[in-house]
Amino acid sequence: MSPPHANHAAHERAFRRLAFPEATAADWGDWRWQLRHRVRTAAGVARVLELSARERRALATPAAWRMPLSITPYLLSLLDQEAPDGPLRRTVLPDVREAQVRKGEYHDPLGEEAHQVAPGLIRSYPHKVLLLATADCASFCRYCTRSRAAGKGTGRASRAAPFPRAALEWLRRTPEIHDVLISGGDPLVWSDARLDRLLKAVRAIPHVDLIRIGTKTPAVLPQRITPGLVRILRSVRPLWLSLHFSHPAELTPRAARACSRLLEAGLPLMNQTVLLRGINDNRETMQRLNEGLLRLGVKPYYLHQGDMAAGTAHLRSTVAKGRAILQALCGQVSGYAIPHFMIDPPGGGGKHHLFPGGGRAGA
Ligand code: SF4
After folding, report:
1. Are 134 and 187 in contact (CB under 8 A)?
2. Which of 73, 92, 100, 214 has the fewest Cβ atoms within 10 Å of its own Cβ atom?
3. In sequence order, what are the beta bridge partners of 352?
4. CB neighbours of residue 287 within 10 Å
5. Number of domains present in the structure of the chain
6. Does the predicted model carry a pTM greater than 0.90?
7. Which pLDDT belongs to residue 103?
8. Are 66 and 179 within one domain?
9. Quick check: is 35 in a domain?
């Protein structure tokens, strides 16, 4: 584990007492308390973090934000360990450059709306679908591909949003589909009961072999991985989890415990990371991230070249840099620590490999 986390528990406790003095240790460990106390305003951030002039300027102009602000108290405690403008801060704090939409950027960079076959159900491949269960996430990442939808119908509205009946109906009558990825948003912000209902409904479809869940909760809300949730997930195995750690600072002892619970329940864990300019696009950070993930029992699976989402140029690194980083890691780290480098070209049509091999073979 990286040195900043050597005294993680002590730091968390000190941060809680200072920033959320009314919260007990039990509150802090409760994922519902964490969701209810997400920081969503500039004033809420400024109250807790020492900010740079750049961070202050961006927070003062919410009209320029491309998506809402939402940060769990837990994640805020990790940001507090960083200097202003630190890498993890840049993943969740707005930037004035979000307002600039460059040529070649799109609000729907993967053309998902054109591939929607039922409300919230995207079919970009013949055999698999993406089920967008919710637009809410525990924390919003500024580089999100689906920022066009992020935060719409969040909180209570999300939990009361219609259950995806039409999507399930479509799945039942489409036997070519064997693989269902449930994502969003982050489906693990749903209540246990609602998630259980959805997972059981998908598992009951005879032609669906593979169910996957895409979630960032182990990185930004590890408290969500409760024994009750794990029982639900375990009951519909085989189920794979696609996690989303972006930086080694997210690999805390709490995150490690969350991953350990999932692994002990027989749930395989893969990680997907976006290559982010000035955040993780250097060899040393990528090595610490991927080797740290392996120590947690998580396979670094995909490294994604940033999508052409509107207003994300300042966070998008280059294909050449991604290739050079992975090339430099070859022979220096376990092969398991080297993810596939992927790109999703604008407009849909599926992923392409960028590494290994240097060519662009179909994924
Ligand atoms: S967790 Fe995923 S869906 Fe949610 S904001 Fe981050 S990248 Fe987007």
Report:
1. yes
2. 100
3. 343, 362
4. 18
5. 2
6. yes
7. 93
8. no
9. yes
